[in-house]
Amino acid sequence: MRGISLTLVLAGLGASVLGAEAPAQSADPKRGGVLNFAVVAEPPNYDCHANTTFGVLHPVGPHYSTLLKYTGDWKSMRIEPDVVSSWSASPDGLTSYLHVQAAAGCEVS
Predict the structure, then answer these.
(1) Rounded-to-integer distance, Cα 25 and Cα 67, Å
(2) Cα–Cα distance between 95 and 89 in angstroms, integer?
(3) Cα–Cα distance between 57 and 45 in angstroms, integer?
(4) Which 3 state secondary structure label does DSSP give 70?
(5) What would the pLDDT profile of 37-48 be if each residue is shown by its tens digit?
(6) 10 to 1, 7, 18, 22, 24: CA distances (angstroms)
(7) Which one of 56, 67, 71, 81 is CB 3.0 to 4.6 Å from 51, fit for a cystine?
(8) Host H or E run for residue 59
(9) pTM of this prediction exceeds 0.85
(10) What percentage of the chain has pLDDT greater than the value 70?
(11) d(CA 18, CA 12)
């Protein structure tokens, strides 16, 4: 009896897969738009230094500044200052100097 019901289940799955049609694709894809996605992880707290889950990145990320930020779309992306006022490099290119804004209120060593 168990073998018959397994055969019927497999036959039903096979028929549904074979009978399913692929989604229609447009000849001219639409560019741009908004990608909405859900993160189904609720962080245990909002301390980004104490958490070990990726789920804290999305709700807490907008509250923090970084030294530099990327602006523009993927074709014309630029690096601009966020907390730094400017940056420079040593003549050999091995050392970068980031000049932090005085109003940032942080200690840099």
Answers:
(1) 42
(2) 6
(3) 11
(4) strand
(5) 777 777 888 887
(6) 14, 5, 12, 21, 27
(7) 56
(8) helix 57-60
(9) no
(10) 70
(11) 10
